[in-house]
Description:
Layout: E1 4-9, H1 13-24, E2 30-36, H2 39-45, E3 53-56, H3 65-74, E4 80-85, H4 90-99, E5 103-106, H5 111-119, E6 127-128, H6 144-147, H7 152-162, H8 167-174, H9 178-192, H10 197-206
Parallel strand pairs: 1-2, 1-3, 3-4, 4-5, 5-6
Helix pairs in contact: 2-3, 7-9, 7-10, 8-9
Amino acid sequence: MGVKKVFICEDHQIFIDGLSSIISSHSDEFELIETSKNGTYTAKKIPFLDIDILLLDLNIPGLNGFEVIQFLREQKLPIKIIVITMYDDPTMIKKAKDAGANAYLLKDVSDETLLEVLRHPDNDKFFIQEGLSNPDHSLFKESFSNVVKLTLREKEVVQLVVKGNTTQKIADILFLSVNTIETHRRNIYRKLEIKNLTELIGFANKYDLMN
């Protein structure tokens, strides 16, 4: 099979260092080609590289992990995508699977399990780390889990609202009615669990919703 080439997309250096260490300690099997802390960069760079495996976080700047998966699958690249995240959330596991990921692991995964997933070439089956998918046992929950529930249209509305556009102006830009925009805004506030424009602006900046 030869040495498998690996790309890491993760925005915390401590996790990049840990994954890099595991890969470098098995240099007869794996080669680390590049690391990135930005989803948009990763999505645009990988098509130009000879990569076998992508280790991908979900909550990253630029395109989030789900969007990276969708982009790469649209390119029809024969790459194994392994999500490695802090989110033990059944909704997010299903979303990753539906987007085209091959495996879903938590960041507390053992070296042995990670290596097992890296070694197996079967990209037709979806691997879930043992013990996951129970909604009552979430290891880490924060507002990012709500970000991925936004539709593309809702993200457009967020971007336009944060840029200071009025409801009427947004309706004109998107060729929608004022009532429709108001409905979108209510749904956005509900999904993001926020109450006002100030919180929306802060949320958009924190989770890079303006890209």
